[in-house]
Amino acid sequence: MATARLGDSTDASFYRSTRVYAANSLWWFDTREGVQFGPFICRIAAICALAVYVAQIAHEDKNLHAAAGEPPGTQDGIAHMVEEILDVLAQRHEFGVTAASNWACARLEVLRAGNRLTSENVGRIRALEFALRHPEQTFDFEHFLRWRAG
User: Fold this and answer.
1) Would you kindly state where each structural domain of the chain is located, as residue ranges?
2) Other CB atoms within 10 A of residue 121 CB
3) If 74 and its partner were Cys, which of 3, 41, 70, 140 is the partner (CB 3.0–4.6 Å)?
């Protein structure tokens, strides 16, 4: 299990608040590069979009994971969500958008059928639902950057 930043909670349901925040009743997230993305209508949408962003970066830069020594999103408490999006992106890369969407639907069924609705599994479900509702952002990173950058 990865370690949390000093002062961060180790609870799987915890998300670092400094990167996802509310301003004027809307939600935003900042990238490590200093770019602000938003607005989002709720906190979970901003967190899911952050998971998509981190997954896209990791998918584009295969060496990122190896260099970091921990799964992408670990420092933000969203590694489980990023993992799901990375799987969707891998399916898209190998088999196309339709196959990736079908895979995500099947994965959702598995997660929902399980008797363990932990906060981590709920996060996984939310990330996959976000990916299915917003395929243009999930599958077209340039579109994501154009549409969400503030």
Assistant:
1) 20-148
2) 15
3) 70
